[in-house]
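Need tokens for this chain, all 162 residues.
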Amino acid sequence: MYAAVIESIPEISPWLPWCHAGYSREETAGFIKLAGQAWAGNSHYQFAILAVTDAAFLGGIAISHIARPNRLANVGYWVRTSRTRQGIASAAVRLVSRYAFGTLGLSRLEIACIPTNASSRRVAEKVGAKFEAVARNRLVMHGAAYAAALYSLLPEDLEKST
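Here are the structure tokens for all 162 residues:
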């Protein structure tokens, strides 16, 4: 994971505040520890995206900001720079969405990204998510509030896209 983050800092640091110059192995270890605690507490779910052929680390995807009474959550994803534009993020979103809808019983997933993040928007559209709005001050990154392109993915949208 550490190597994938270091490789990808120039491309993903504008969109993901945890990815920054000076990112350390200790941050990776801390992330993995917190991810395990989150799974144990059913508060959010981090998944590693691994290559089928050799289990190489390709990126990450998460189900977070879960609002169980409303059966909704957020999905966020990233793929290491050397493996982008290969359908990896789309495949991961489809798999994780099936887990969210089937195992967790959610009925709505949201993808929120900075409007100029064309790669994330392309993935959302490719998996069948519907663009709903540009929500003002929806994301906070690097200490500032940003608008977000907000997409929704429902179980029926996912089925139509596969």
